[in-house]
Amino acid sequence: MTVTPLGIPRRLLEFTLDGEPVRAPEGSTILDACRAAGKDVPTLCEGDTLTPKNACRVCVVEVEGSRTLVPACSRRAEPGMEVRTGTERARHSRKVVLELLASSVDLSTTPRVAGWLKEYEAKPDRFGPDAARVDEEPRVDNDLYVRDYGKCILCYKCVDACGDQWQNTFAISVAGHGFDARIAVEHDAPLTDSACVYCGNCIEVCPTGALSFKSEFDMRAAGTWDESRQSETTTVCAYCGVGCNLTLHVQDNEIVKVTSPHDNPVTHGNLCIKGRFGYQHVQNRD
């Protein structure tokens, strides 16, 4: 007999979303309620396994009585609140944020951004050719993953995943101030000389491709990376008895990267170096 845990029931609260009455479980964020209602509110820094940092400000919405726009990813829904997601003020704010991000970093590998730029009629080029950009060469100093800070939007998700929210390795942090702020390891050393344990959990949460598998980086450089041709198969890691779930991404009968389901109660999307990177023996056909 299979018993399905129901969890602790949460009381529903009612509020108004774009003029329509909605219900959401107590403790839900506005973004949770928007997604449940089928409303597409863009976000870059929000992650379903991390505490929101409110860094990107793309998900801002208008709340009746609030002096400023509020980030939907962290603002809790409250009974009786009136939320509007598509006002001119909110849309203009998202447009400017997208323009600033796209003018300063490379968003070419950020999912859905191209569609949002078009939807909000954002024009990053309007700042001109002299707009400051983070033009950094990718850092390829190990065989497992690549750091391409020219794509980094400073969402801090990698810092949180490496720090006290998951891994507790504290290998990476933010260095510098203002426009010179960067994600870096201690003393900005090569990754091989840092405290990194190569779990790859920072890659799992990176929204822009600033952190990527070396295999993906090489295939993109060669023009062979094609997600439309990739299949995903979830299995159980065989390295130890913890029971972590692995999702194998396969293209042309080769594993190209490994992720983990975020809703898995064992891993919550996190893995160790063996689970995330130790798949080469599967493809050894000698």
From TrEMBL:
Locate the 2Fe-2S ferredoxin-type domain: which residues? Answer: 11-89
Keyword list (alphabetical) reads:
4Fe-4S, Iron, Iron-sulfur, Metal-binding, Repeat
The UniProt entry, under PROSITE patterns, shows: 2FE2S_FER_2 (PS51085), 4FE4S_FER_1 (PS00198), 4FE4S_FER_2 (PS51379), 4FE4S_MOW_BIS_MGD (PS51669), MOLYBDOPTERIN_PROK_1 (PS00551)
Q: In this protein, which residues make up the domain named 4Fe-4S ferredoxin-type? A: 188-216
GO-annotated molecular function = 4 iron, 4 sulfur cluster binding; metal ion binding; oxidoreductase activity
Domain annotation 4Fe-4S Mo/W bis-MGD-type: ranges: 230-286
SUPFAM superfamilies to which the protein is assigned, alphabetical: 2Fe-2S ferredoxin-like, 4Fe-4S ferredoxins, Formate dehydrogenase/DMSO reductase, domains 1-3
Q: Per its UniProt entry, which superkingdom is the organism in?
A: Bacteria
Q: Does the keyword Lyase apply?
A: no
- TM helices/strands, residue ranges: none
Q: Which Pfam families match?
A: Fer2_4, Fer4_7, Molybdop_Fe4S4
Q: What is this protein called?
A: Respiratory chain oxidoreductase
